[in-house]
Amino acid sequence: MQMGMHSDTEHCVRAVQSKDARFDGWFFTAVLTTRIYCRPSCPVVPPKPENMVFHPSAAACQQAGFRACKRCRPDTSPGSPEWNQRADLVARAMRLIADGVVDREGVPGLAARLGYSTRQIERQLLAELGAGPLALARAQRAQTARLLIETTALPMARIAFAAGFSSIRTFNDTVREVFALSPSDLRTRAPKQTVAPGAISLRLPFRAPLNPDNLFGHLAATAVPGVEEWRAGAYRRTLRLPYGPGIVALTPQPDHIACRLTLGDLRDLPVAISRCRRMLDLDADPVAIDAQLREDALLATLVDKAPGRRVPRTVDEAEFAVRAVLGQQVSTAAARTHAARLVTAHGDPVDDPEGGLTHLFPSAQALAAVDPESLAMPRTRRTTLTTLVGQLADGTLHLGVESDWSEARTRLLEVPGFGPWSVDVIAMRALGDPDAFLPTDLGVRRAAQDLGLPATPAALTARAAAWRPWRAYAVQYLWATDGHPINFLPV
Length: 491
Prior knowledge:
It contains 23 helices and 9 strands.
């Protein structure tokens, strides 16, 4: 699927008429006769083509005066794959908006993080998405409000401010405008469920297929004790969020990921959801990815065996970079041990009555203040770690959802002890570059050789040119040929 699909009326009409769920989130159908907008897979009888107009975002539909369909709930579609496969200004802005930056810092804060003027950002977002940053953030606030209304017993006043609205009146007006229902009506219509105090349970949608084995297997096998754990079929971890700590439990289900969040401050709900979706790579388009990888006959055998693999990512880019250093030239078990020591000594404690989580992973600022001599690791790796956390702490190096992938690679390579493998594993799993590749990785090279692919880094890189821009997913398929625990869903 290409950028700007909403402008291709013929393809959009066909997708709507076939109720193809793969296109949910790529574009939205607005019906001129009913003034309602839907996802392409809406179960109702499709409208006549002459009554359909198409928009690139829910915010654009709302801005044009359309209300969300009560049947297909288009506001809960998976996000567009565009924002996680691109590194241009619009994609970086969308990742920041999903991370709540506009609500916390306003449009000037968004612009400052991206290094552009507010006018430039508004112009580009409007041109591509049909809505500016304020409208996009408003659509996100409406969806957050709906989640809180339907999944908690909180008073509406608390929900209004937790969702980011400046007043109860604005909250009421927005909910009515977007959903054609009052907040009280939304709660009445929601399925009855047991609501545990302090916990929010919701479903995270994805595009099928999704293979959970390497996704949850990798997260569970590399889990840092105290920060992460696998318990009762769920991957659980602590979250460092803008307004306070949180804990999430994520359980793979056939058609969604069950998500249970416990937050210190409800204002962090949209940020927590966004980070969990990024960690699990839920906005990927597996059909498009797998189709391209199948073009290579040797790789096709791996794809056909277990399609829908995702790239296991992270909820905290700086944390992952630190863990990548701790994992250099040591086993998975040793890396977990090193990380656990740092967590126990320097992480912020958290309370977890439902499990065994004890700490947030230490911030870069906390690690920068550690006496280097107290770190039990070889001197060269100690230098790498202290240089990295020092630059992260003082802002010389920034790793975040808005990072320019090329610039971040360049800055990381300047850190002593960082080579291509470390940089690309951070690009792949922390920054989210779908084309990051690890031709020198031993597991990748071994799998390539067993499969009949070139095994030398140069030759493998040349062969992998045909896999672009999805080489990070090819790495997952190659890694999965090994019997390492990262490739298996824990029992």
